[in-house]
Design goal:
Strand content: under 5%
Structural class: mainly alpha
Largest sheet: none
Order of helices and strands: HHH
Length: 139
Amino acid sequence: MYAVAVEVWTISAGILFDNFHIGHSLTEALAYAKNTTGRKARAERALQDKENQQLDLEARLEVLETGTFVERLTVRVEMAVEHLKENPKMLFYALAAFVFTVVYSKLMGGSQEKERKKVKRSKRSVETEAPVEKEGAVN
């Protein structure tokens, strides 16, 4: 099996030639393709992804500045979810903080509620008691 490889660079629109390979082995040709075309394709994809991320960020910032409450809330939630996907430890910390807050509020809120009930009872008992007349008071 014979093949010819020629790399042609052109600045004319619509004409594209890139990475021809001449060799005897299919495995060598596949390795060559992986090392040249594969790398180039991955680099182009990474560049395109970066550009798309930048455009997405600009669109989100626009929504945060001019969008309605629901649109801004949606963008904030999407950004938080993406951040948690990138940093899974933060999800653990956020859940731990939430659980701690709920437990703390239940424990402390319960004791405060008991104090409120005691104060209400004492106010009621003071209101229901007959007024005490002072000795020597003239009516």
